[in-house]
């Protein structure tokens, strides 16, 4: 696989965490995972040496004009959502999009994309604290503050802070497959896959307690994906009522037990398609999705392509 160019923009006052995410995910070559990795570039305004919010000043030979030539452009969080975004950056993002680049924003970086017009008529998300402002300032943007990230093809946006990691890992999964993305997630000590539709903000005073109580059940279920698993069976294993189980699932995962289970099964099917030569019907059985028709339905709906197409693109063989 040819190296893919990823360019991240740095302007004065950028928050350090959102900048560090793409540097960590895309900026390190990982020969033990794959022979090919991203060609990563840090880009700054011409003639300037901007400092991050933490005071760091990156050393780089790339100006914002390098964004236009990149395959993927990442815009971290902006310094202040109430300010006008830097005109040079906005123009570079617009030009990169016109040139066919994949445009990615992390957290409040969505304000830069909106200013460039690339979010007009598209679904997009940002940190829940800034979602109302984004919607008011840019009414053509279809703002959804309830999700972790949105993949709208050539434009991707994420919610705040840690959701940027989820989106960047999602990009690795799209580019290099589930096996490599899962290995990278393990190295980063983070969940292998949080679906973009998972809630970004979950209110409740017992989140930590519910997470600790639910974790053993999630591990138990992952080891039994090929078995029939119902809400009642999960509740019985957790020794709680179905009502309590559903509440805990929503608190911890932002979704229902069956939606979570279906997502995990699709993820397991992705790995089997990449790493084995099992026929589709056997993968459907081992992932717990039942029939090959059911696998094709849920896989295509979740991943965007049929299992056979995915296997051709990412099979290790």
UniProtKB/TrEMBL annotation:
Pfam families: DJ-1_PfpI (PF01965), HTH_18 (PF12833). The keyword DNA-binding applies. Keywords: DNA-binding, Transcription, Transcription regulation. The keyword Transcription regulation applies. One of its GO terms (molecular function) is sequence-specific DNA binding. SUPFAM superfamilies: Class I glutamine amidotransferase-like, Homeodomain-like. Signal peptide: none annotated. Coiled coil: none annotated. CDD domains: GATase1_AraC_1. Residues 215-313 form the HTH araC/xylS-type domain. This is Helix-turn-helix domain-containing protein. The lineage of its organism: Bacteria, Bacillati, Actinomycetota, Actinomycetes, Streptosporangiales.
């Amino acid at each position: 696989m040819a190296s893919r160019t990823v360019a991240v923009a740095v302007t004065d006052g950028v928050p350090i965490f959102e900048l560090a995410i793409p540097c960590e995910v895309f900026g390190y070559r990982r020969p033990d995972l794959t022979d090919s990795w991203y060609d990563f570039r840090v880009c700054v305004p011409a003639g300037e040496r901007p400092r991050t919010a933490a005071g760091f000043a990156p050393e780089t030979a790339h100006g914002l004009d390098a964004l236009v030539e990149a395959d993927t452009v990442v815009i971290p969080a902006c310094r202040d959502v109430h300010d006008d975004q830097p005109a040079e950056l906005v123009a570079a993002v617009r030009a990169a999009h016109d040139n066919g680049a994949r445009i990615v924003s992390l957290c409040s970086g969505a304000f830069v994309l909106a200013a460039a017009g690339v979010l007009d008529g598209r679904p997009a998300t940002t940190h829940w604290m800034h979602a109302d402002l984004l919607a008011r300032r840019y009414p053509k943007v279809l703002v959804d503050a309830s999700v972790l990230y949105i993949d709208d093809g050539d434009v991707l946006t994420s919610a705040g802070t840690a959701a940027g990691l989820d989106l960047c890992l999602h990009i690795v999964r799209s580019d290099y497959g589930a096996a490599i993305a899962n290995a990278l997630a393990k190295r980063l000590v983070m969940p292998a896959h949080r679906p973009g539709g998972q809630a970004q903000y979950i209110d409740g005073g017992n989140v930590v307690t519910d997470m600790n109580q639910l974790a053993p059940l999630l591990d138990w279920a992952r080891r039994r994906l090929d078995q029939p698993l119902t809400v009642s069976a999960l509740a019985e294993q957790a020794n709680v009522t179905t009502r309590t189980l559903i509440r805990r699932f929503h608190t911890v995962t932002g979704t229902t037990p069956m939606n979570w289970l279906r997502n995990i099964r699709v993820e397991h099917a992705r790995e089997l398609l990449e790493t084995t030569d099992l026929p589709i019907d056997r993968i459907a059985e081992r992932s717990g999705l039942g029939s090959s028709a059911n696998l094709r339905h849920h896989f295509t709906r979740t991943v965007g392509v049929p299992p056979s197409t995915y296997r051709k693109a990412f099979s290790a063989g």
